Amino acid sequence: MIEDAAFEVIEREGLSGFSMRKLAAALGCEAMSIYHHFPSQAHLYEALVDRQMSGLVVPDNSLPWRERARIGMQEFRRVATEHPAFAPFIVVYRMNSPPCLAKLNAIIGLFEDGGFGPELSARLFRAAGYYLMGAILDETAGYAKGPSAVTTVSDEDLARDYPSVSAAGAYFGTSGFDKTFELGLEMFLDEMERIRDAARHETAKVGGDRVQKKK
Question: Which of 24, 83, 133, 208 has the smallest count of CB within 10 Å of its CB?
């Protein structure tokens, strides 16, 4: 109940406007009552992250590797954007609590199952995180929020003076988020498979050269 109310207050007030006092008001209790369950706001936020991550579905190995990787990345985006106002916190939060570590272990294992080896699996996992963090932040706290500048221009001036920006704007809105994300995701998966195949080819070549030398 406290966690549900916390998400509601965060969505209404934003991260910067959230406080335990406001949460207590939403629950109709004293703040000290909340501290009995969560000793600090940090403990509460950790519980919120754990709750979201517990809902992330890691596909099992009955599926082809590429499909597993695709679903894993789609799942993190889905989970992180369920509560848009909380998304900027979860995407930069270092997930080292036991529930989060269990999910991270499964996801890193998924990359290892792709045949990349320990180092490349770790680097690709991080690179995937960079892509996901950028997409999630833009979809929840960036472009989705509208113009940031105080000084803006009219649609007419935009079309006249910045025609490329004006034309591209039709594809930048929230209705285009999914298509843009999926485009980037497929590019990312293509490149991962290209890297893996190139590494396998090089390994096979080195092995063949060694056989020839022995002969």
Answer: 208
